[in-house]
Design brief:
The chain is an alpha+beta fold and 757 residues long. It folds into three domains: 169 residues, 2-Layer Sandwich (Aldehyde Oxidoreductase, domain 4); 181 residues, Aldehyde oxidase/xanthine dehydrogenase, a/b hammerhead (Aldehyde Oxidoreductase, domain 3), CATH 3.90.1170; 255 residues, Aldehyde Oxidoreductase, domain 4 (2-Layer Sandwich), CATH 3.30.365.10. The protein is built from 20 helices and 34 strands. Strands 3-8-1-16-13-14-15 form a seven-stranded mixed β-sheet, sandwiched between helices. It has a five-stranded mixed β-sheet with strand order 11-19-18-17-12. Strands 21-30-31-34 form a four-stranded mixed β-sheet. Helix 14 runs parallel beside helix 15 and helix 17 packs across helix 19. The radius of gyration is 27 Å and the shape is globular.
């Protein structure tokens, strides 16, 4: 058996080296300002692209006149939807036209594109384009979209390409995606009818922007060999290449995607849209095309979080145990479904209404509706922020109605042992009880609080994503190693994970391993960053690479030395016990160097096999001003179920950053829309939280060796943001007996509750 095969099943503790603070691979270039982002990249002879946005919510395009724009000073090309036809893009369902064709479906949709010598010339040309619109009825409410007599927003949906094969049936023409999850009894109504208690609540969550500081940018050119080059902040470059190949009918080998440093993602950069139009401009002009969006444009039409309406109904027995749970989750998907990568075109997190509780009978229906809002996309833990706010608020209300302590009530119903999740999933080491007991102890749960102060708890469980990731590795005779990865680094530290894990496995200095990000032409396939998968995949690919390298060095050294050597404790040991260091054996075994590819693909668990999850929970204390309704967080505790920590500084940063993200969603942020148009056109208006808005956070980690990553690593990026809002809402309820059922938790909503409104 090869070392890598034997290594697969071995459970080993993390080495002590991983307990030391990391030196980030990308740290020096970022702190010195030398890091290049997409907007920093240029090509000789490039032209600047600008796009004409639709001012209409929903309208038919009667005519577009680009005559004056085409001959404006500095302009090299003007294209519209009629020039390229009904070409559409998308991650799973290709329903979003590259440029509006025949009609526009939201404010901001691109109607025309201009390539000019300067940004000023391009903007001036846009002002010369005349579009004649015929207004059409608009749908801005997902409930209205599902009415039997609602107008159909996509009458040509049968023509859309669905990359997963045959598109699943949908219950209404205005549905993007639909999914029903069941467990236990096929019919829940008899259980509800016989239950000692039935509770029903309704919650709403508004749209939200991911809040990354780097705007979208694109640089596209075609080289002399007819190769298409795309520089983009898209965090899944291999997937983008595949999508472009499918949409354009071009072999994927002709498309090279390069992702420089990514200036923040938070879920929002799995979809980028300007590559296609820039390619057509590059083809028409024969020049490189560069486009950079403005932050206000980003806020107006790129990937907002799905607004949600969630109705929950739960049956409880006389002892307070959950019997059945029925959830109806309606999401505003906006004008196009292009941002959704899942085959059912829904959000996996939207089913996590009560994910950490043992409930024998479940029905969860998730519906994503087309509307005339900007197309909704993924934002950190997509769907879960919405679902968990509803679910944990619902649990709290049930506990209070039954006269139970909210934490004790959760302990009564928490998953443990062989209990399964809402969809029947089995858990490796369910730790809900440990999380709650730690909260009870560390938050001094039983201590009373002063008048106007309250304490809230929320419990969460988050999956750890799978996929595939490869590394191209070259080992030099001097023992230095160069690793090329196709996984972008959006700030999470994936390159540092690879470096540290390989160094730990080989027991060599981290500085002797160079990790670089390669284009799709240079690096092996990677599934992309997202779904809480990056540490899992990157660390296991690094382990696989290290084991393959050791096997190869042992095998190649034997004929040159005349005897076998075995890798032990950082040295290659011969039969007489003599030790050769890594660089010494490399000089002997690979005098010309050695290059290979390591590939790791996560196993797909069968339905009856347990899967890896991370549990977490918050206890948050607030003060509420009864005169104004203002809410101030006075204490916050996060208890996190974590595996082996590979990057300690980044790990803590992810937990703290997730908390700050959750504070924004809970108390300040709102993407306000009026008549289909975003009116909070900057981060100040949207009230992105700043340092003064984020209180200190205490973190208690519950370590474990049971994780799918190297040495038992789990995840952190989406572990700490989802339960913040319900914990604060529950604390407000505890403080002043006001239940806020919508986010953000505004002072006027609290005051209205205090006044009995």
């Amino acid at each position: 058996m090869s070392r890598s095969a034997a290594h697969e099943s071995s459970a080993r503790p993390a080495p002590a080296s991983l307990g030391q603070p990391e030196r980030r691979v990308d740290g020096p270039v970022k702190v010195t300002g030398k890091a290049l982002y997409t907007a920093d990249r240029h090509m000789p002879g490039e032209l600047v692209a600008r796009f004409l946005p639709s001012p209409e919510v929903h309208a038919r395009i009667v005519d577009i006149d680009v005559t004056r724009a085409a001959v404006a000073p500095g302009v090299h090309a003007v294209i519209t939807g009629r020039d390229i036809g009904p070409l559409r893009m998308g991650r799973q369902l290709q329903d979003w036209p590259v440029l509006a064709f025949e009609r526009v479906r939201f404010v901001g949709e691109h109607v025309a594109a201009v390539a000019a010598e300067t940004a000023e010339a391009a903007e001036a040309a846009l002002a010369l384009i005349h579009v004649d619109y015929e207004k059409l009825p608009a749908i801005l409410d997902p409930q209205a979209a599902l009415a039997p007599d609602a107008i159909v927003l996509h009458p040509s949906a049968a023509d859309y390409v669905y990359l997963a094969g045959a598109r699943p049936p949908i219950p209404h023409p205005n549905v993007q995606g639909h999914r029903v999850i069941t467990k236990g009894a096929a019919d829940l109504e008899p259980i509800f009818a016989a239950a000692a208690h039935v509770f029903e609540h309704r919650f709403t969550v508004p749209p939200l922007h991911a809040g990354y500081l780097e705007p979208h940018a694109t640089l596209v050119w075609i080289d002399d060999e007819d190769q298409i080059h795309v520089v983009t902040p898209n965090k899944a470059p291999f997937n983008l290449r595949s999508q472009m190949s499918q949409a354009l009918g071009i072999p994927s080998e002709r498309i090279v995607i390069e992702v420089p440093h990514v200036g923040g993602d938070f879920g929002g950069k799995g979809l980028t849209i300007d590559e296609y139009a820039c390619l057509f401009l590059a083809q028409k002009t024969g020049r490189p095309i560069r486009a950079v969006t403005s932050p206000s444009d980003d806020l107006a039409y790129l990937n907002p979080r799905h607004a949600a309406l969630i109705r929950l109904r739960t049956a409880v027995d006389a002892d307070g145990r959950f019997l059945a749970h029925d959830a109806r989750v309606l999401l505003d998907g906006g004008a196009y479904a292009a941002a959704k990568p899942l085959p059912n075109l829904t959000l996996s997190g939207a089913s996590n209404t009560l994910p950490a509780y043992a409930i024998p009978n479940v029905r969860i229906e998730i519906t994503v509706a087309y509307t005339n809002h900007a197309p909704a996309g993924h934002v950190r833990a997509p769907g879960e922020v919405q679902a968990l706010f509803a679910g944990e608020s619902h649990v709290d209300e049930i506990a209070r109605a039954l006269g139970r302590d909210p934490l004790q009530f959760r302990l009564l119903n928490a998953v443990r042992g062989t209990d399964t999740g809402l969809d029947g999933t089995r858990f490796h080491e369910p730790r809900a009880v440990e999380v709650l007991e730690t909260i009870r102890r560390e938050a001094s749960w039983e201590e009373s609080l002063p008048d106007g102060a309250g304490r809230g708890v929320a419990l969460c469980v988050r999956h750890i994503g799978g996929g595939k990731s490869g590394l191209r590795v070259r080992c030099s005779p001097d023992g230095r190693i160069r690793v090329v990865t196709g996984a972008p680094d959006q700030g999470g530290g994936v390159a540092t994970v690879i470096q540290r894990v390989m160094a730990a496995e080989l027991l060599i200095p981290e500085a002797s391993i160079e990790v670089v990000h390669g284009s799709t032409a240079e690096a092996p396939f990677d599934s992309g960053v997202g779904a809480s998968r990056a540490t899992h995949l990157a660390s296991r690919a690094a382990t696989q690479a290290a084991m393959q390298l050791i096997d190869e060095l042992e095998e190649r050294a034997e004929p040159r030395l005349g005897h076998r050597v075995d890798f032990e404790a950082g040295y290659f040991v011969d039969p007489d016990g003599h030790r050769l260091a890594f660089d010494e054996i490399a000089a002997v075994a690979i005098p010309d160097g050695f290059e290979f590819t390591a590939m790791y693909e996560a196993a797909v668990h069968a339905e009856d096999e347990p899967a890896y999850y991370s549990f977490s929970g918050y206890s948050i204390e607030v003060e509420v001003d009864r005169e104004t309704g203002m809410v101030r967080v006075r204490d916050a505790l996060l208890v996190a179920d974590v595996g082996a920590v590979i990057n300690p500084v980044a790990h803590r940063g992810q937990l703290l950053g997730g908390f700050a993200f959750g504070i924004g969603a809970a108390l300040t942020e709102e993407l306000v829309r009026a008549d289909g148009q975003v009116v909070t056109a900057n981060f100040g208006d949207m009230r992105l939280p700043v340092a003064n808005d984020v209180p200190p956070l205490r973190i208690v980690e519950l370590p474990t060796s049971l994780g799918p990553g190297a040495f038992g690593a789990k995840m952190a990026g989406e572990l700490s943001n989802t339960a913040v809002a319900p914990a604060i809402a529950n604390a407000v309820r505890d403080a002043v007996a006001v239940r806020v059922t919508s986010l953000p938790i505004k002072p006027e909503a609290v005051l209205r509750g205090l006044l009995g409104g």
